[in-house]
UniProtKB/TrEMBL annotation:
InterPro entries: Acyl_CoA_acyltransferase
This protein's name: GCN5 family acetyltransferase
Species this protein is from: Acrodontium crateriforme
Source superkingdom: Eukaryota
Length: 198
């Protein structure tokens, strides 16, 4: 398995475009594991709205990198591994935000002042990188836990697709997450989860 380094995302290194490449690689790969319904069959990298959304994520992360964590904060990180030539290449991405995604706010508040959390709206790897990206997701979860400690939080929340016999839910549960509530958004079945640090 690769050894990974994690760095802040940057527009200068086109990390917004890399995140969309990860989506496209997953969309091609998911049918092979029975999860073709998770994100459909069409690439997203060419969609202007999606491009703008992820550019904004990275821009907000850059702008707030040296600022205290606040109610509108966002951090985007990229995991890199060295290829066979020793060159560091991006293999996975992580987004952390101060608020839950809009589409889950029927099951979890945007933020809970009595039980505050950091939200993880995206954890994704580039399937085109093959074995080079294997284990990157777990590395980024561990990185997120360290970020929580540094920022003074003890609760990490996320959501994921709950189709395909809940296999993705089971992945998160195997990493210490606990299922909180199910939801459906535009016909998409999902699960909200949390991980609590001791």
């Amino acid at each position: 398995m690769s050894t990974f380094t994690v760095r802040p995302a940057s527009l200068a290194t086109n990390d917004d475009a890399f995140l969309l490449e990860c989506f496209d690689s997953q969309i091609k790969w998911l049918p092979s594991v029975g999860a073709g319904d998770q994100w459909g069959s069409e690439p997203v990298s060419g969609e202007p709205d999606t491009q703008n959304r992820y550019r904004k994520y990275v821009q907000t992360s850059q702008d707030g990198e040296r600022q205290p964590w606040g109610e509108d904060s966002c951090r985007v990180y990229i995991a890199e591994a060295n290829d066979q030539n020793g060159k560091a290449v991006p293999v996975a991405g992580l987004i952390l935000t101060a608020k839950a995604s809009d589409y889950v706010q029927s099951t979890i508040p945007a933020q809970d002042p009595t039980d505050p959390f950091i939200y993880m709206p995206l954890l994704i790897s580039d399937r085109e990188k093959g074995s080079l990206s294997k284990g990157a997701g777990v590395t980024l979860i561990e990185f997120a836990k360290k970020e929580l400690v540094m920022l003074g939080f003890k609760r990490l929340c996320c959501d994921c697709w709950s189709g395909n016999e809940r296999r993705l839910v089971q992945f998160y549960e195997s990493k210490g997450f606990k299922a909180l509530a199910s939801f459906t958004h535009d016909g998409w079945p999902g699960q909200v989860l949390e991980l609590r640090l001791e």
